[in-house]
Amino acid sequence: MTLLAEAGTQVLTTASAPSCYSRLTNEWICGQYLTDRHQEVLDATVQHIWITVVSVLVGLVIAFPLALLARRLPRLESLILGVTTGIYTIPSLALFPLMVPFTGLTATTVVLGLALYALTILVRSLLEGFRSVPEDVVESATGLGYSRLKLLFGIELPLALPVVMAGLRVATVSTVALTTVGSLVSYGGLGNLIKDGVSTNFRAELLTASVICVLLAVLLDVVLVGAQRVLTPWTRGVRA
Amino acid sequence: MNILSEAWRYLRDGDNWTGPGGMANLLNQQLLLTITALVMALVIGLPIALWLGHLGRGGFLAINVSNVGRAVPTFALLALLVVAEWPGTQSFGPYGRAGLATLIALTLFALPPIITNAYVAVREVPPDVRESARGMGMTGPQQFFRVELPLALPLVMSGVRLALVQVWATATIAALVAGPGLGRVITDGFFRSNYGKGIAGAIVVALVALVLELLAALVQRLADPMRRGGSSSNREMGVSAGTSTVDETVDAVG
């Protein structure tokens, strides 16, 4: 008798207070989810960050020589801008599959695809940045005997930095958002959680992953703004 | 490379194009979704942005709506709308399963480029031109329709073009939440390990994206008789990447 009653109350208590992410309640906001599944969420976030950062860096490494080439050879400029803009118009969900025959179902597919998008923004902002360097400054530096390389890294690049950084911020923020689509090949960082959240109708997981994704974009943007302030101390005085 | 020939075979098979779930139908559905969302975003966003630009107010909002639009993943918003009580997965007329949710998401993501570009376009009309218009005795509406709007049109159009690209891309992603459109060919292929099919879908989606972009570029050129022949690439990017120039405009506006 008592055993039965005890079991009865146990069932009752579990039924009356199910965790906020159980199928019955399926709440959007659920702290219990975060504490129970923190490892899963952390792993996805870490994957999201490294895919984003590596993609933007790869994009930057490819964009820099392309921008220099386009600057030197104006005829190549329209070709480079045309091709990169063309790539940019291809939806991410189509670009990843198009890379699969070459890179397989790996993280490389996602990273290269995202790098191609970042590239478009970065080439344009690099070119615009170089264009924003005052010509008399370049002339004085040349007159002082600066070599081409020293001119590029000592004068032009620092002066172009504010415009380039603006492009880098845009590229980074959009890459954070686009990484989620990588869940098509299971390398989508937080996108993997979003995909799982949709297919299993799991609201807490879905909302948590989405919110972290937006926070990540804001965080990386703030980091880049900070980096820009440190790298270009002379712009602060001018603004104020 | 075996997958590529599989994709090619899928594309050449007429059966994959016809029928209710065929690619022709899905393509039509996605084009319909794209156009509807773009028109809705234009109807909602354009008057507000142009009016704010004319008044020179709300610049902070008009610029930052683009930053917010970039930071929110399209996939996440689609997913949230589909899993929510409303609009959920209910089908909506010719727009298919989760049609309403998809349309809402597409419209929301079309708004930022339209609003930001239209606002900046009107703000960037040179002050002396605006002043001469006022000096000639033009009323506010005359100033707007005869001077500001024609001068702003090229940049407004490049915003519409950006929005079109964005909407087409988002409409494809709708398939990730089992929504309508051609993206379904891609997701079906990938989630059922039929990679040839997935890649075939991707090829069609990418080609249509390029065709749409070229058409939009053509329309933009027609709407801009003054700059025909010249390159317009510098100006377009003034909004998407050159945030610094945009910020300066806002600072000037206060």
Task: Write structural notes for this entry.
The complex is a heterodimer of chains A (240) and B (254). Chain A has 240 residues and is mostly helical. Chain A has one domain: MetI-like fold (Orthogonal Bundle), CATH 1.10.3720. Chain A contains eleven helices and no strands. Chain A has helices at 2-16, 31-36, 38-72, 74-89, 92-103, 107-131, 135-143, 148-179, 190-199, 203-231, 234-239. The longest helix of chain A has 35 residues, at 38-72. Chain A starts with a helix and ends with a helix. Chain B is elongated, with a radius of gyration of 21 Å. The relative contact order of chain B is 0.15. In chain B, helix 3 packs across helix 5, helix 6 (127-135) runs antiparallel to helix 7 (140-173) and helix 7 (140-173) packs antiparallel against helix 9. Chain B has helices at 2-12, 23-55, 59-71, 74-83, 99-123, 127-135, 140-173, 183-191, 195-222, 233-240, 243-253. With 254 residues, chain B is an all-alpha fold. The chains are: A mainly alpha (240), B mainly alpha (254). Chains A and B meet through helix 4, helix 5, helix 6, helix 8 and helix 9 of A and helix 3, helix 4, helix 7, helix 8 and helix 9 of B.
Largest interface: A-B, 54 and 52 residues
Q: Examine the secondary-structure arrangement and name the CATH architecture of chain A.
A: Orthogonal Bundle
CATH superfamily of chain A: MetI-like
| N-to-C SSE string of chain B, H for helix and E for strand | HHHHHHHHHHH
* CATH fold title of chain A: MetI-like fold
Helix amount of chain B: over 70%
> According to CATH, what is the class of chain A?
Mainly Alpha
Give helix % range of chain A: over 70%
Which whole number gives the mean pLDDT of chain B?
Answer: 87
Q: Which stretches of chain A of 5+ consecutive residues score pLDDT under 50?
A: 7-15
The biggest beta sheet of chain B, please? none
Count of DSSP strands of chain B: 0
Strand content of chain B: under 5%
Derived from helix and strand composition plus strand pairing, the structural class of chain B reads mainly alpha
Structural category of chain A is: mainly alpha
| Uncertain residue ranges of chain B | 228-254
